[in-house]
Records
---
Amino acid sequence: MRIVDARVIVTCPGRNFVTLKIVTDEGVTGVGDATLNGRELAVASYLRDHVVPLLIGRDPARIEDTWQYLYQGAYWRRGPVTMSAIAAVDTALWDIKGKVAGLPVYQLLGGRSREGVTVYGHANGETVEDVLVEVARYVDLGYRAIRVQCGVPGLPKTYGVSADKLFYEPADAALPSEATWSTARYLAHVPTVFARVRDEFGPTLRLLHDVHHRLSPIEAARLGRSLEPYALTWMEDPVPAELPEGFRLIRQHTTTPVAVGEVFNTIWDAAQLIREQLIDYIRTTVVHAGGITHLRRIFDLAALHHVRSGSHGATDLSPVCMAAALHVDLAIPNFGLQEYMRHTDATDEVFPHGYHYADGYLHPAETPGLGVDIDEQAAARYPYAPAYLPVNRLEDGTVHPW
Ligand code: EZ4
Ligand code: CO
């Protein structure tokens, strides 16, 4: 079998997605997500101009060899653009391999290690009262784990909090909008939110919180300590993770578990954090960390060091990425949680998929391959529209330095 075509499809059914569709001479096709929020066209070009010509004529069965060829062969290794492009190729090849074998991809990864993939949803609100309503909504939907984000009194707008609920989209403007940040206001408020949520919903509901890289290590240590009475499942991205040493300081001061890694691209970004057991959950995912092949490598390293998976699953990760993530989640021994932000109806129409939610779990499709596709005619009705994540400034106007 040979690859005869690879199409890069850019579409915006409510938000931008970049998808690679690989076609073989025997008519079997595979899809891979290549979406990099706010920098979509860079990956589309990387694929179209520099990867697709190398794929034509290759044997699609050689997944590992193709991964090494694209990673080593580029000379310029790593980085979000390169790794998202490699991820798209890798994911599409696993899809093809599953279809050829007549098996869902999780079977190729060693088979089912659990009955379903436990997911968490986002409960966010401007006020604590709004947050309580949203948490109740997720509890009613059967969720076993819920991420809680609340507006901060005195700040006009907080990242991660919006008027839209189940379909929240942070890339909100054609040029980046700007938000204001105050660490003092934030640190004073967050523990009061979790106190109320625990009061209302009891001690066993799994609760999470995303700091979105807004704190320094000692500030994050203080937040972790102040949240200890509320027994969070994790505190996410407490500090920017370019400096793994910073996590040592957090660790010395708090037992609140730490999750990190949604912006990581390779095992090298995570290796020190994992080896030194400075984190509890690694949040790399299929599209931004080199596809199923490389993600599995990261999760295997994590398994040796008491670190569980917690893959990123916001709306900018397309249904193709979500489908792929679920196969990995179902198979690995050290699965922790999977983030799940629902996609809009328009997105679901463009990406017909067989995975489904039931009672707090996602279940991958049982059909051969990933169980997801792209409807190219539907995709063509939604042209690319520039959209960016907001920029954060301190109250004095400084771009937030970490
Ligand atoms: O900011 O997906 O955990 N989820 C998140 C997301 C990310 C966006 C960035 O593209 O932090 O909301
Ligand atoms: Co996050």
---
Amino acid sequence: MVFILGIESSCDDTSAAISRNDVILSNITANQDIHRNFGGVVPELASRAHQQNIIPVIETALKTANISKKDISAVAFTKGPGLLGSLLVGISFAKAFALGAGIPILEVDHLQAHVLAHFINDGSPTWSPPGFPFLCLTVSGGHTQIVRVNDFFDMEIIGQTIDDAAGEAFDKSAKLMNMGYPGGPLIDQYAKEGNPDAFRFAKPNIPGLDFSFSGLKTSILYFLRDKLKEDKEFIENNRNDLCASVQSTIVSILIQKLLSASDMTGIKEIAIAGGVSANSSLRDELMNARDLYQWKVFIPKLEYSTDNAAMIAITGYLKYIRKDFGSQESTPYARSNF
Ligand code: KG4
Ligand code: ZN
């Protein structure tokens, strides 16, 4: 039996999870509401909130899993990419805990972990993970990538955004419509009552498997500017339709590129990961594509879509059984380097 304590602190969520082999026993996250007042994550405040949250979150994770500190085999933590001050809180805690307990540490890449969340065993008799090679669309607040996953730790980025990430496209669109932060879940919610064909926004024309979302933001900005000249209440009067149309534009850009990636590689096992994979329309469209193109699709549970420590624990477990241990000299990185 291998018990891993996983710690995630790369952005504004402090999360801790306990795994027993490939099963998650607990997954506890403290969200930092403080950033809502600023319309985005304030790095300095995030580090401080991690410092306050980390002990109680870990204690709750241990208690929920009914595990004592002495049972932990190793500590896995997010090494990057992310906010350096935030990452340092998790790394420092992991090092100190492991040193005190005389156990190894495991360095985890946040983006690999989003992908490897698909290997969390949900305990049901029908559970089966993706088979290699598979494609994973990782869509979060900071990243948009199509990854060809050849093996657990052999991943190749075959397409990525050249400007904004898909999550940023949701968040920035929401900001233009005077909505709160983060905007993605709010757009998803309002879109449920709206018509996705009500308004048309420009889609980028980027060759290959790369993405671009900055043009969409400009298209929405000019569209709203013109409409607001005619009707000052245009946004309030059309919020549902606006959200549904913006969401459908973003989702169709993502699905189109996934289709091209599947065509180009011949791979039909398709997974999605990251915060935007919580989006209900993206999930629905992926199921439609599954039926149309005979794909085998993998959609993470909501709690494993947005940032969480369960994905850090499972990645840690996969490294532990390979004896791929980290060192006390480990330092964080801000940008992805896998
Ligand atoms: O993976 P994640 O939790 O954190 C990062 O690593 O960035 O992703 C956060 C992003 C935010 O941009 C948020 O607006 C978006 O995921 N998001 C959503 C939904 N839930 C979260 N976007 C669209 N629909 C959702 N339901
Ligand atoms: Zn993430």
